[in-house]
Design a protein that fits this description.
Layout lengths: L1 H20 L1 E6 L10 E6 L6 E4 L5 E3 L6 E6 L6 E5 L6 E4 L9 E2 L7 E2 L7 E5 H6 L5 H5 L5 E6 L3 E6 L2 E2 L3 E5 L2 E2 L18 E8 L3 H4 L6 E7 L7 E10 L3 E12 L2 E12 L14 E14 L3 E16 L12 E21 L4 E22 L5 E23 L4 E16 L6 E18 L2 E12 L7 E11 L2 E12 L3 H5 L2 E3 L2 E4 L7 E16 L3 E25 L4 E24 L3 E13 L1 H5 L6 E15 L4 E10 L2 E3 L2 E2 L4 E5 L2 E12 L4 E8 L6 E8 L5 E8 L5 E12 L1
Length: about 750
């Protein structure tokens, strides 16, 4: 009996010692203070299941593994710790403060997630902090201040984008790698892409046609959404209000149980609409958006499986002027736009081992837009339908990649990219049209010597309506000297006309849009280059300078043209304009001082082929525009608040309108913009409040000036919308976690 008791005590003592040895502390290297709630990723050396957890309020964590594991520990403001450790030998992990963290992880176009500065592509990252500081509620709000990016507004059709002088039809916009469908005139309405539940945005300015195919010549925008890895339960509620009439609300909840993660979110965005002259017919149309999303993720030993389904609904009313005023039955003709999007997405990430991974994603996307013209009785607001038109698009997409690292210097990625889109509408020629694009691609990365990377790639696609050429690209990255990197890329691009450009007829408010089945695809060559210099003096200051130049040549460029005009109606059609060249350069400088001050300034000069030059070589070949941005951010860690002031100058720029029988050039006037935001955290950063003012110079409409060929005379046209004027906003985010 005594022997049995002694053995039991020894066994308990051994277990206790083993458990004690498995507990480690995460502390600040400089002062030794504990770092609570640090993010921890644990993975077996053989590449088994990744386990995500956090340290407790004392900075402690108990490791249950008995064999060696790869341990990664990260926390905001500190350098990431990653090392293979023996749990029994681990006592303490010291994290080194990194006030000027450059270690942003990117995934767009990569073989696997990696540090941004290690990527062969030059990638801009807009994190959640900047999104909040700008008071951004949609993608246009986030990107509009960038000198290399231009946003054009429309009261009825929202906002669209151009990058490096090329329009939105050449920009691939994705959410978690899944393309968004529902383009109008080749462009996506950025106001429909909301920023709730967004972790960060990755923007590649330059050709990505080999990896992402059509619509990726000018650049790629990938919106990365939040992914709960660390908390057993998470609840986020946010509200946003902006004058003259925006009220938004969002609720996000996530539950992590064993290897399962369940997430649900809902968003309601409301805008009352506004007009400058207090008439009923508002320039900025009122709208209401409702969004719901469900997600499920399962983490197995070597695989992660994710599903999500999303529903988007927008109602927008275009109010008309009142007719019959003073009579017993005044009325107005209004147009109601109802847009719906559904998507069902599946993702599989499988790690064969440390050197081989397979990623598969598949989605079904449904887009439906109804334009209903109604006669509104102004005495009782009763609506009677006068006309209705529905356009429906369905997209099927499957993308699979296989990544293989052969050794420390050579790796490659190969994949398939299958896309089918079907459009149906009474105004689509034939009622229904389908176009398919089925591609295979491969890229290979080779490090010839330390700091010199080259990545060639090719893509072959079969398009069901057009002959698709072999696409190719070459990317280079060179570490010239310490802290100085050079990148360069050369690529061939191809864009087939969309179903809407080919077949959709559309009529609204005195103008007609006609499909053009004779359109030919665009083909292009593009060359980009950049130099990036970083200098960091411990935690005292950081200086970063980037210089970038680009040149694009597009053959058979597709542009919108005025092809017929009567007294009351304009008829527009997409046509092949001919050869168009764009070129320009960008300079960007950042200077951070300790943990408090951050200064940024950038300047962009861009040029596009003049319409006059195409018919008269004596004219200047390029028309240039200049854009400038300057910002200063002050952070006070003691009281946990920050202030951001952002100034932008948008220079006069050409508008790409064509008139077949009357060659002319249009310009949009220049303007200045100023925005200020104050952000403050409360209750141990659970509550964040932002107060701000936008468009302090009160910009509204921008004049469009026509320069007549050979005469130099000017004529003013209908102005382009920019903003509803000066506005003020408040945003509150409440985050509750169970660790």
């Amino acid at each position: 009996m005594n022997k049995l008791l002694l053995i039991s005590l020894l066994l308990i003592s051994t277990i206790s010692i083993a458990q004690t040895n498995s507990i480690f502390h995460v502390v600040d290297k400089q002062n030794g203070e504990a770092i609570p709630y640090a993010n921890v990723c644990i993975q077996k050396v053989d590449g088994g299941t990744k386990k995500y957890t956090i340290t407790n309020e004392k900075g402690e964590l108990e490791l249950l593994e008995s064999e060696k594991v790869e341990l990664t520990v990260s926390y905001i403001g500190y350098k990431t710790y990653s090392k293979i450790v023996n749990p029994s030998d681990l006592k303490k992990i010291e994290l080194e403060a990194d006030v000027f963290s450059l270690e942003q992880i990117v995934v767009t176009g990569q073989n696997k997630p990696m540090l941004r500065d290690s990527s062969i592509y030059a990638i801009k990252v807009f994190d959640s902090k900047l999104i909040q500081q700008r008071g951004a509620i949609n993608l246009a709000d986030v990107l509009k201040a960038q000198p290399s990016i231009k946003i054009k507004q429309s009261g009825s059709f929202g906002s669209n984008i151009s990058i490096l002088g090329l329009g939105g039809e050449n920009v691939k916009i994705m959410i978690d790698g899944v393309p968004i469908i529902g383009r109008l005139d080749g462009n996506l309405d950025l106001s429909q892409i909301t920023m709730e539940n967004v972790d960060h945005i990755e923007v590649v300015e330059g050709p990505m046609s080999v990896v992402y195919g059509s619509n990726a010549l000018a650049g790629t925008v990938n919106i990365i959404t939040k992914n709960n890895k660390w908390n057993k339960a998470e609840l986020i509620a946010s509200t946003y209000a902006e004058s003259p009439g925006t009220f938004n609300a969002n609720l996000y909840g996530s539950l992590k149980k064993a290897n399962n993660i369940y997430t649900i979110s809902g968003v309601r965005n409301y805008f009352s609409g506004t007009s400058y002259d207090n008439t009923r017919a508002s320039k900025w149309k009122g709208s209401e958006q409702n969004i719901a999303e469900l997600r499920y993720a399962y983490q197995a030993k070597k695989a992660t499986l994710r599903f999500n389904t999303k529903y988007f609904n927008e109602f927008m009313k275009d109010k008309g002027a009142v007719s019959g005023a003073g009579t017993p039955t005044p009325y107005a003709f209004d147009v109601n736009f109802l847009t719906k999007r559904y998507s069902l997405n599946g993702f599989l990430e499988y790690d064969h081992n440390k050197k081989m991974q397979t990623n598969i994603q598949s989605s079904i996307s449904y887009y439906d837009r109804v334009m209903r013209t109604v006669r509104t009785d102004m005495t009782n607001l009763r609506e009677v339908e006068a006309d209705s038109d529905t356009t429906t698009f369905i997209n099927f997409m499957t993308r699979a990649t296989f990544n293989h690292t052969l050794n420390s210097k050579i790796s490659y990625q190969t994949g398939i990219d299958l896309n089918t889109e079907t459009g149906s509408a009474k105004r689509i020629t034939g009622g229904t049209q389908t176009i398919g694009d089925y591609a295979i691609f491969i890229t290979g990365k080779h490090e010839f010597w330390k700091g010199f990377l080259i990545q060639p790639g090719v893509r072959y696609a079969y398009n069901t309506k057009f002959d698709s050429p072999l696409l190719y690209s070459v990317n280079l990255k060179v570490n010239l000297i310490k802290n100085l990197q050079a990148r360069a890329s050369f690529a061939k691009g191809f864009r087939a006309p969309t179903l809407k450009e080919l077949y959709l007829d559309f009529s609204h408010a005195g103008y007609n849009i006609k499909g053009n089945s004779e359109l030919q695809p665009e083909s292009s060559h593009t060359l980009n280059g950049s130099l990036i210099y970083n200098y960091k003096n411990d935690n005292t200051f950081l200086f970063k300078m980037e210089l970038k130049g680009y040149y694009n040549k597009i053959k058979d460029k597709i542009d919108f043209a005025l092809v017929d005009q009567t007294e009351n109606t304009q008829t527009w059609m997409n046509i092949n304009r001919g050869n168009v060249e764009t070129k320009g350069w960008i300079a960007d400088a950042t200077f951070d001082v300790n943990s408090r001050w951050s200064f940024n300034t950038n300047y962009a000069r861009s040029g596009i082929t003049s319409l006059f030059y195409e018919n008269d070589n004596s004219q200047d070949k390029y028309i240039y525009s200049n854009n400038f941005l300057a910002s200063v951010t002050y952070k006070n860690p003691t009281y946990d608040y920050s202030v951001r002031i952002e100034y932008a100058y948008k220079g006069e720029e050409p508008v790409d309108f064509l008139e077949e029988n009357n060659l002319s050039q249009f310009y949009v006037e220049s303007y200045n913009d100023l925005n200020i935001t104050l952000t403050k955290s409360f209750w141990e950063r659970r509550l964040n409040i932002s107060l701000g003012a936008k468009n302090l110079f009160d910009n509204q409409d921008l004049a469009i000036i026509e320069i007549l060929q050979n005469t130099g005379t000017t004529a003013s046209l209908e102005p382009q919308l920019l903003s509803w004027g000066r506005s003020y906003f408040v945003k509150m985010i409440l985050t509750l976690n169970k660790h």
